[in-house]
Structure formats: C-alpha cells, structure tokens
Specification:
By secondary structure, this protein is α/β, with parallel strands linked by helices. It is built from 4 helices and 5 strands. It has one domain: STAS domain (Transcription Regulator spoIIAA, 2-Layer Sandwich), CATH 3.30.750. The protein is 39% helix and 33% strand. InterPro entries: Anti-sigma_ant, STAS_dom, STAS_dom_sf.
Length: 109
C-alpha cells in the first residue's frame, strides 16, 4: 500500500494505491491521526488505485469518522472501484460515509 498526499489550504487528498489490509491499515491510521488533518475542511480519499480493502482498513475509517465529524471535517471517497464500493454498500457504510464518482464531485461536497 502506498499513500500519496496532496494538500491545499482547505483540503487534504490521500490517494491510496494497492491493498488496504491489516498491515497497511497502520500506515493509514497514522496519516489520519495527524493533528493537522483536523485543521482542514475536507479529507478526500482517492480510491482509484485501491484494489482491496479488509475489515481492518474499513475499521480505520470508521474509527476516525466521529473525530472528523466533531471537528467539522468532511471525509469524502471518490474514484472507488466497483468491488471496493460493494464492500462499503454490503456493510451499509455508504450511508455513513460520502462516496462520489469523481474528484470534481468530491471537491464540490
């Protein structure tokens, strides 16, 4: 798993590349735990190159969801592959998290 960051004044975009499993979820958790993230307005997760997500990977997002909501930081997923989106939908996470088709849609949220 590789995580690439791009930041602006109000938005942090994290591009996930590879498989988000138990071992790589620690890296993602470290990124999402950085205090400066709570000073942004949006955290955009680019899932175009995310090939797989395990329960541990989902757990990282779920564990940060309330913290982001409390800080008024929007968490938005975009470019999600169908097989990854299906996991979110089966677990009902698509009703808890914002998932949009494109980066332009994510920026507009």
């Amino acid at each position: 798993m590789k995580i690439t960051q791009h930041a602006t004044d109000t938005t942090l975009t994290l591009a996930l590349n590879g498989e988000l499993d138990a071992s790589s979820s620690v890296l993602l958790d470290t990124e999402l735990s950085k205090p400066e993230i709570l000073r942004t307005q949006k955290v955009l997760i680019d899932c175009q190159q995310l090939n797989y997500i395990s329960s541990a990977g989902l757990g990282v997002f779920i564990s940060h969801l309330q913290t982001f909501q409390d800080a008024n930081v929007k968490l938005v997923f975009f470019n999600m592959q169908e097989k990854v989106r299906n996991v979110f939908e089966i677990l009902g996470l698509d009703s808890l998290m914002t998932i949009v088709p494109s980066e332009a849609d994510a920026a507009a949220v």
